[in-house]
Fold:
Amino acid sequence: MYEYKLIRSKRKTISLRINENCELEVRAPFNAPNSEIDKMVSRQSDWIEKHMPSARKRMEQSQKLTPELLRELTERAKREIPPRVWHYAGIMGVEPTGIRITSARKRFGSCSGRNSLCFSCLLMLYPQEAIDSVVVHELAHIRHHDHSPAFYGFILSVMPDYRQREKLLKQQPDIPG
Structure:
């Protein structure tokens, strides 16, 4: 049996996740019996065993993200991402209202309701093909503020190999240091 951190909330289902500290978190409804939660954790042992090594690697990599490295990545992103945004915006016939670079660790990009784009400096750890896939994804949100088939159709009309590029983002980057 695995040790886990239990988080009860107003929800209908039980879910598992491995957090950034490599701890198993179980989210469960207030009324879920502990025995049911334990059975769920036990049934998911294969999933836990499969995902724990990559979570440990992510945690180790995260510890290498020094303030100096984050500054370097941010400066590089500020130089390199805006030209890519404007390049693809012209091709796609859309216009963002702004471009920001952050040090977000949980998502590579976002598009606000006002069509302002935000990108994580951590994108700089990935190949250019992966960076461009995030740029096109966020620009597509200017036209489609959802993840509908039309949204993905729009992306694929601009970047037919989008799915292969997107897979690059699932790989752990090599962090210098």
